[in-house]
Amino acid sequence: MATLExxxxxxSVSTDRETNNVSVFNILxxxxxxxxLEIPRLVAVSAWNMAPEDRDKDFQVTLRIPQPWNETDPxxxxxxxxxxxxxxxxxxxxxxEALQIKEPGELRLQILxxxxxxxxxxxxxxxxxxxxxxxxxxxETAQPPMxxxxxxxx
Length: 154
Description:
This protein has one domain (3-133): Macroglobulin (MG2) domain (Immunoglobulin-like). The chain is mostly beta strands. Helix content is 0%, strand content 56%.
């Protein structure tokens, strides 16, 4: 069965044509504005590790966005993408525009594989008129990690 390597939601993503390396820009963790607000664009990127027995099988990766303020069904919107691959890894990008947000709180985007939830990315929505402090504290390493024989660096 395919297993999730990573799932992240950001403003944009770029894939290098020569190396196939992916760069993700402006990961969405906190969004602030006068409600209702609009997230102009977002991309949800997921990477999947494929077992040898997964090759040439059909898979469906779905981005699920909840709509808790919606009084009628559906309580969420699903954006499915189907794929088949012969490769060991497969990357899926869901691109959306003009996502409307009506309430503050946590927007919990889910990634599903064949209808089963696999991971969640949380975006905290803040009303600009509230006194809630927006931000995330960062912790960084001051020294690069040691690789190989530690004694050889002394």
